[in-house]
Amino acid sequence: MVSFIASLFLVTVAELGDKTQLLALSFATRYKPAKVITGIFIALLLLQLLAVTVGQVVSDLIPMQYLRIIVGFSFIGFGIWMLKRDEHDEQGKVREGAHSLGAIVTVTVAFFIAELGDKTQLATISLAAKYHSFINVWLGSTVGMVLADGAAIIAGVFAGKKIPQEKIKYISAVLFTIFGLVTIVQAFL
Q: Measured at the alpha carbon of residue 34, what is the angle toward residues 118 and 53, in degrees to the nearest 5?
């Protein structure tokens, strides 16, 4: 139980203010919150499973430099993707038929790529190596991430109502590009 609580607390704190919270917030302004949280949950279950496995079996499976380069370019790609226009109806809502499953798949893939090698994944690897409690660390870290990103989704829903969609789109695109460039530079330092 200690490993579950430690994982839940440490990963939640590590995720606060993280770039993937920005990703959750951005998606919450574009898609229905239930679809965003579903996509995040699927990605995090898989990612945290990978992190716990790596932490317990092979802690140096992928060199961190390569992960940072991949993640950096993926963030630049997200920045460009944010500028893409969605298919909207007259009220400005995304048409249900056009993105019903697509929203979940988009969020899942984006989160999976964005979290690879992130500090919360590294924290999960460390917790798994420390506690050797596979299920507790996996579930604790996953729930911690979902709690932190859930807060960003709530903020995104409110931001989507108060801030014009165009501004959110451009701010998100710029921030993702900056995060991507910084991550790539960090890979070479």
A: 35
